[in-house]
Write a structure and sequence with these properties.
Helices cover 27% and strands 26% of the residues. With 379 residues, the protein is α/β, with parallel strands linked by helices. It has two domains: 106 residues, Beta-Lactamase; 251 residues, P-loop containing nucleotide triphosphate hydrolases (Rossmann fold). α7 packs parallel to α8 and α8 packs across α9. The longest helix is centred in the first third of the chain and has 14 residues.
Length: 379
């Protein structure tokens, strides 16, 4: 005997989650549906801002009460298997469409319950989208895609909100479809077009400290999963050492992001994170390993003048000099030419004239057919 009327099928868990989220987050529902809105910031239940085209706008929307906002947050936490309470006052989670959720409870949030939602385009941005938005040039797009095919280790560097995750997803689409890809993230956001992808996600321990899985745990186990590529959403701890040593021992073609404001800062950050591992290594060893493992640093910036997010530099790491300092050579660099009539920055990401040390590889490997816009970068 069926408990469902004829023709009416039971809802899946994902459909129930989506319906419940729609209900609890209905006060900000229009912003979740608006493709122009990239971020929703609930400073307290009756003070809500959104970001459109890189600019902040205050809205008239509000939740009925702080309890209503808290109920919405508990609903999201429940469906992703996480907790937010007095003992765990911060939540990192995601919505059914992949949008990233962060919530903070009082007294950590002094004005009241705080909720921030970073939206992501369904299916993710493509490199073509980023070219159309002016975030990257056609030549740089092709260059990066070829570097992915050449199995270069690439670090995407930038500050908060510069678009690192979006670019990571777009660049990762250049990984050949016949490769096995392992994606490791703190909170699941990436959705790659390849068919053979395994997604691993950090799990918080329960109230007794059991069942936790960190980035490092997932990275170590991913090495036993026969990966062709390992993509780490962001390195932020001792797993940096495991990742770097894996790159040096045959797992090339890795991609990751790091918080840093310049290419050199990104390398120093990776060096520092490597030393946070429980394996004690001298500074000069950490530096030498970072310099040997990393091939390219892609630097992103967000410009307050027009709210745009752009790739500002693509640099090659060429080891250490005689003073044990990183040797970094810019291959692409942004050139600014003022503003347009509508207030947009006129920026072009152009080759510097320097060729990468691997400039002969594409033609040697028969990849000539992929070279159209970036011919100046290859021998």
């Amino acid at each position: 005997m069926s408990f469902f009327p004829e023709g009416l099928l039971p809802m899946t868990r994902a459909q129930i989650f989506e319906s419940s989220v729609d209900y609890f987050l209905s006060p900000i529902g229009p912003f979740l549906e608006d493709p122009e809105v990239t971020e929703i910031m609930v400073n307290r239940f009756d003070q809500i801002y959104v970001e459109r085209a890189g600019r902040l706008h205050k809205t008239n929307a509000s939740f009925e009460s702080e309890d209503a906002l808290l109920s919405a947050i508990h609903n999201v936490a429940q469906w992703v298997g996480r907790r937010i309470n007095f003992e765990n006052p911060i939540l990192d989670a995601r919505l059914p469409d992949g949008s990233r959720v962060n919530a903070v409870l009082p007294p950590g949030a002094r004005q009241g319950v705080c909720l921030t939602i970073r939206k992501f385009k369904r299916g993710g941005l493509t490199m073509t989208d980023l070219v159309n938005y002016g975030s990257v040039s056609e030549s740089a797009r092709e260059f990066l895609e070829l570097c992915v095919r050449l199995h270069k280790n690439i670090v995407l560097s930038g500050g908060t909100g510069t678009g690192k995750t979006s670019l990571l997803g777009a660049v990762s689409s250049a990984v050949p479809f016949d490769e096995r890809v392992i994606v490791i993230e703190d909170t699941a956001e990436l959705r790659l077009p390849q068919e053979h992808v395994v997604y691993l996600e950090v799990q918080r321990p329960d109230q007794y400290g059991r069942g936790g899985l960190g980035i490092r745990d997932l990275f170590v186990t991913s090495l036993r999963m026969r990966p062709d590529r390992i993509i780490v959403g962001e390195v932020r701890g001792g797993e940096a050492l495991d990742m770097i040593q894996a790159m040096l021992s045959g797992h090339s073609g890795s991609l990751t992001t790091v918080h840093a404001n310049a290419a050199r800062d990104a390398l120093v950050r990776l060096e520092t994170l490597s030393m946070m591992s429980d394996v004690s290594i001298p500074v000069y060893v950490a530096r030498a390993q970072v310099a040997a493992a990393m091939h390219l640093i892609v630097q992103l910036s967000r410009f307050s003048e027009d709210g745009s997010r752009r790739v500002t530099q693509i640099s090659e790491v060429r080891g250490l000099d005689k003073d044990d300092q990183y040797v970094i050579v810019d291959l692409y660099k942004s050139r600014f030419a003022g503003k347009s009539d509508d207030g947009k920055l006129q920026v072009s990401l152009e080759p510097t004239g320097e060729l990468p040390t691997f400039a002969e590889e594409p033609r040697g490997l028969g990849m000539d057919r992929y070279i159209q816009h970036s011919a100046a970068m290859w021998k």
